[in-house]
Design goal:
21 helices, 4 strands, 497 residues, two-stranded antiparallel ribbon, mainly alpha
Length: 497
Amino acid sequence: MIDNISWLAIYPEIVLLVMACVIALVDLAIHSPRRTGTYVLTLLTLGVVALLEGMYASRGTTFYGFGNMIVSDAMGNWLKCFAAVAMMMTLVYGRPYAGDRDMLRGGELFTLSLFSLLGMFIMIGGNNFLVLYLGLELLTLSSYALVALRREDATATEAAMKYFVLGAMASGFLLYGLSMVYGATGSLDIGEVFKAVNSGQIRHQVLVFGVVFIVAGLAFKLGAVPFHMWVPDVYEGAPTVVTLLIAGAPKLAAFAIVMRLLVDALLPLAIDWQQMLAVLAVGSLLVGNLAAIAQTNLKRMLAYSTISQMGFVLLGLMSGVINGTVDAATAQAAYSASMFYVVTYVLTTLAAFGVILLLARSGFESDNIADMAGLNQRSPLYAGILAICLFSMAGVPPLVGFYSKLAVLQALVASGDALHIGLAVFAVMMSLIGAFYYLRVVKVMYFDAPVQTAVISAPLDVRVILTLNGALLFVLGILPGGLMALCSDAILRSLAS
């Protein structure tokens, strides 16, 4: 049944969809090389959508629409709000870069970005297997097109093909897993699936078989080992603005779909999927940190860094249920730590890639570690912002990365389980290894002689937002309580519903 509540639940999505179509049409009449009209209209749209989602989230109410296919809850609304803001920042950072590389001949960058955000929104707000899959496909298809946006660039085209082939395989895994669970439970509705699994009437083997494929599909979207093959190639091959589009906001949607499928639908099977997540987390931390040491390309290093960071997110997600016993407080602490980690990771990634985009100029990418040599002498501000990002990723206090890692480790240790404590120790050891390659970049920036002499210039909006972004990493590290309380409350309301 479609009533007023249903329309209210998807009001921001409708605004986003209508405006994406309007912007695509308006762009036909805009001929300026920098697409100023399209850019301004896109930012206004994203600002309005973020404001709407923020208003929904602050109310904290949960309601369902379109016959329980869509859910609007605090967790989903906050993630949508953060995703819209992240997309705004990405486009602000990326516009000068895209303009220099002739990527703004048409308005595809802006319209595809809006459609990928719409896919994220559908993923985050889905309460039905089909809706979740629909959102996922909208996001991934837009992402494939964005990676291949520079058609004349062989590296970008190759990256898009790899992404497409491996993405199709992962979607197949996920779809197969969902169909297995549907076959076992007889429902596509997440609430109904939970009730059916919780009843204990269904053969465990069939369900676990489906869960294995679901976890494999989700691991691909998160970029976890051994489904990480696409991450380094796509990060390096794609134009840097598109790399940021893939590395930033979609991680929030990936976290949401993991919560919807594994926690909201399959929590009674937690003892099975937590073991899988533990293996994925260990693999991601090990491979991500060790492989990053060998990289000379900064984008590729950050790709392996992302893989290791996702290992931490998975550690948080696997510590919500202890020995098959569901405790509300434990689950809330673990899942809110993961949510906090994802949000702060996206914020850090935005600033790091923002600096890389800013240093790039026409005909020069600035994506090797050697290109950062002597950056402090050329621009102390941008060197400082990048250093803050790298120290935050390494987990150095008092930056936000330290607190986010600490929150995940606390959730692990609080369980008192020997395996969880062992994983916490392993994660700390891997973080120490990870600190090496982050510090290497800082050493190059501050102590090596400059190899580039070109003047670093950037539009005012880029400079202001980048400075605020860097400052926020510092402020949230010293005062993390507000964001942590917001994540904790959102998770609590989500679990309660």
